[in-house]
């Protein structure tokens, strides 16, 4: 109901006769009526909804998937549902745009109803004439029966949603995930304004924010099914990186070798998964010193390090987020290795801090000590600044000139997962089994950094792995991807020799 409006060209309007409409509606085989098996994720999604229901008894909760966004005129961007919607329904990449999950309050909990646009019959105008939603144009959608059987949810036509929203307007507390669908949020605001003594708009929006925050927090610890999806995403990402390694010699000498590398990863992401979980960073040479270099317009030169930060998102929308910094020739130079090993040592320190009972921010603190110590040893900090002084969180921080980013973030369906949480629950939150996060320190010496030794200039290194917090420590989920300088060199040699992995 709330996809962007498209601009349709008037010169494409073709009149259709009754005869034509009858003709195109006829002569098709009957649709398949076989029962649809219940998806494995359905039970997990039901458990998540039950937990949400217990937290907000008696309230109507509205979790939209969001709609299509126009790219230009009558073409849209690829659709991706809002994560809260996907997590609570079990739907992934094949979510229908404009779908909405409603948890409708009942005396003993909530009834979950999925509102969506089901497959239109063949005798509808939509079937052949609607280039945005019609089966002839974009393929079939599921029927209400199909989704009901697959997900174990009640389903209704999206057109009946406004009636449900208007039902006992004012008498029931309603919360909506605002970030997903602005139009629907406005509609909810209108119905809330009809209450006899409506809460202030600020109070209502705070209530909405509380729902979004709670949903972020619920996703902090992953269940076993989610960990399995993450393993798939990481395995596919591993294959994508090997395709890059195999393709690096061809990328050298191309005008925009970084784009070539991006394309190789994208091929694997699209084939083995749903696509990339975020824009791929392919940063050769000095470009590695731009933390989020996604223009990827540069060449890949012999002798460069190429920093690739990339992740495959699988069909369930879980994504990996891995960085490897690879010597294009297959061998690190001495100075490249020196910087690489400092970053690796910082990563090891960060990884060692990943265990239950530690705080999330302890990971960054541990990695930071190594980064600061190396920069101090190399004489890069201002004259007279001690290690203790630079590590002082209030007054210090000189070392941050060479690593301006944090070391970790939560990872899951969103690459920056659980983003709505407050500082006390994220940075200061305790690590718990089931959490998945990145550990990704770096060191960045820009080509024009006059405070860096000349030999360091133009070298940027980041190493990033995806880690599961376990009962007694952690498991590095991406441990199969080589990480030490020696192992990276051996990896490149092995892939290039054509040896099977
Ligand atoms: Mn990351």
TrEMBL record:
InterPro entries: Aminopep_P_N, Creatin/AminoP/Spt16_N, Creatinase/aminopeptidase-like, Pept_M24, Peptidase_M24B_aminopep-P_CS, X-Pro_dipept-like. Its cofactor is Mn(2+). Its EC number is 3.4.11.9. It comes from the Bacteria. GO terms for cellular component: cytosol. GO terms for biological process: proteolysis. PROSITE patterns: PROLINE_PEPTIDASE. Residues 39-185 form the Aminopeptidase P N-terminal domain. GO terms for molecular function: manganese ion binding; metalloaminopeptidase activity. It catalyses: Release of any N-terminal amino acid, including proline, that is linked to proline, even from a dipeptide or tripeptide. Pfam families: AMP_N, Peptidase_M24. It is an enzyme of class 3 (hydrolase). Keywords: Aminopeptidase, Hydrolase, Manganese, Metal-binding, Protease. PANTHER family: XAA-PRO AMINOPEPTIDASE 3. Belongs to the peptidase M24B family. This is Xaa-Pro aminopeptidase.
